[in-house]
UniProtKB/TrEMBL annotation:
Keywords per UniProt: DNA-binding, Transcription, Transcription regulation
UniProt organism field: Amycolatopsis sacchari
A single GO molecular function term of this UniProt record: transcription cis-regulatory region binding
Pfam families for the chain: TetR_C_43, TetR_N
Annotated Gene3D superfamilies: Tetracycline Repressor, domain 2
Domain HTH tetR-type: 14-73
DNA-binding region: 36-55
Protein name (database record): DNA-binding transcriptional regulator, AcrR family
Amino acid sequence: MTDGLTRSSRADARDNRDRILEAARALFSAEGLAVPMREIARHAGVGPATLYRHFPTKESLVTEAFTEQMGKCGAIVEEALADPDPWHGFCTLVIRVFELHAQDRGRTAAFLSAYPKALALDNTRAGTLANAAELARRAKAAGKLRPDFVVQDLILIIMANSGVRATDPHEAAAASRRFAALAIDAFRADGAAAPLPPATWTPQLVS
């Protein structure tokens, strides 16, 4: 009897937590990170006490809400790295990350700007960047990626893609796909023209 009640309580707690995160993501998307915690609780159908029991601070809630987004980006890079054709994997990486950014509409960038010391995401970003660098190394070794490419270039085009804005999400996705195609052409080893200027800044993955 007691075990049954305990399992039921745990299930209720997980359900409440999931509803809070779902509400937070929806409201952050619609209203930005300044949305009040009480509004998130109301949208999730829980009381403020329940919300704060799961997420004692606004930063803890925002960090958890965006961990999933960073995880998606990391998964894309891992899948691209597993591709036996490194150039195909690299192209797929660019296309899929651009698509993810088109859906994100700048929310992750806003989070990273507001909470730059979110350590869990810092660790995720470091691993994702290392995998992206390894993928680039393999694509260069295959003779497909221009030899002067550095991982900062990937971050640069991701940041540029974040500037794509359209009222209609389908239009934003279409613009991102076109930009991805242009970027991939610029990265081809056989399409390289003049050498690139030196990369002197530290990469910061924004999604």
